[in-house]
DNA sequence: AGTGCCGGGAA
DNA sequence: TTCCCGGCACT
């Protein structure tokens, strides 16, 4: 869900950035996955159990319309559309084969839509696509390699109820935006230099595993569904309870889970997102519950990308003469709180919150361009509008107050 | 609605 | 450069 209020009038990419979530055509039963990134749009349509088609289209988002395979080529000269038609096998395909087709489609989609530098076969889109397609393969085992070595955080769980277009957790898009907006080649870099592990966030657990499958299974079996009575929670809730941790090649940059700095680690019960001693098992996120959706979508993944992104609010940059509050040195109690938490430090008011990459993008949209509203009294408040002549010059000119600095 | 202040225009 | 203000962001 993109809050329209703070998205800004225009995208820094110069184009309307949209991201539609996978939807299911009720008439045809198709699963349609559409991505639109900065003028590129890709649509993946998985024909349920009949076949799989991937549509990819480059062109302006505004003028593009998805070309179906059997339609004539796009009349738009700037649009290049291509499609990959996976041979149909309508006769009793196992779910495994369906998933493999979706996997292939997602791989093709990823290779087409991502920048040439992103050539890893295990793209975050895979996860999104797979899960959007209705089949999460993580339990089958062969996904674990891709998950274990991909750099982005595990994709938020996309439930069947997430077919609503309101919440597109398209991490592929977000990653692209992330790179574009932050001018940061980090994800690409991390791909080569980071090992990924997954840590259980269950209070007083902190188990670290190297694969999503493993950590999910651990959570599901150990914490959530002891005995596996609920099939449902095994599909949805374990994502809440693990986080991705990046182990950099430089060993000193990654502290073990139970090191002395564990107070800042998500495994600490006191600082974990589900810090209450007995965290109520979060109900499966539903589109009708924004807070739940935000939490569920952001908590698992943002924890993983947390280390890279959480201090990038440029408006938090201290004045030249002041100290630097680094992300790593932030108050631990503020770092791992899922709900928005305000930290006040030496007059600086800033928020540290676990957010998804998309949310971070939104924050970066608004944050750098406008300084945070100061809490100090301003000339207007002190002197009142009737004594405007006593205001500082900046206040008189409706500029940032120079007299009562924050 | 009130406030802070960015961006931009006029002098 | 100085001064002013429209309008957005935020509370």
UniProtKB/TrEMBL annotation:
One of its GO terms (biological process) is regulation of transcription by RNA polymerase II. Transmembrane segments: none annotated. It comes from the Eukaryota. Residues 274-288 have a biased composition (Pro residues). It is found in: Nucleus. One of its GO terms (cellular component) is nucleus. Residues 198-223 form the C2H2-type domain. Keywords: DNA-binding, Metal-binding, Nucleus, Transcription, Transcription regulation, Zinc, Zinc-finger. Its main location: nucleus. One of its GO terms (molecular function) is zinc ion binding. Residues 64-94, 146-173, 251-296 are annotated as: Disordered. Residues 71-83, 255-273 have a biased composition (Low complexity). This is C2H2-type domain-containing protein.
